[in-house]
Amino acid sequence: MAFKMDGESVLPAGREAVWANLNDPETLKACIPGCQELEQKENGGFSAVVKVKIGPVSATFKGSVDLTDLDPPSGYRIVGQGEGGAAGFARGGATVGLTEQDGGTLLRYDVDAVIGGRLAQLGGRLVNGVAKKLADEFFAKFAQIVEERHGAASA
């Protein structure tokens, strides 16, 4: 099942600070809902273990992401895949862009993914709804951390 999602979030810090946080394993681990492990790989990408629940399906996904098309501090492309055993798999990518806006940074993302297995059988509306909720949770926590670390310094 193909899946698309996009969105944006205005963050209360400059692009350099947002970029640094987007590439910091500790920040990302704290922001990714259900993240149990997150380690930076030698190539700059990440390997992760994330537990998610979508409707009646609960699974622990093990996967990795690579960062391509690096354009610091303006953005990059994330390409990744994860395996959730009997629950299924997910693979895809996201383009992330950062632009300065009103004393902060506008982060835009555009996701294309494919899911399979039991997850794909749940239906697009349920999967899209949960994905949107998880993205909202990620960006709320990310904005909070960025503001705590950099909000006063960049004001």
TrEMBL record:
CDD domains according to UniProt: CoxG
Which Pfam family, just one, is annotated for this protein? COXG
Identify the domain of life: Bacteria
- Show the SUPFAM superfamilies listed in the entry: Bet v1-like (SSF55961)
Q: Could you tell me which PANTHER family the record lists for this protein?
A: BLL0334 PROTEIN
Tell me the protein's name: Carbon monoxide dehydrogenase subunit G
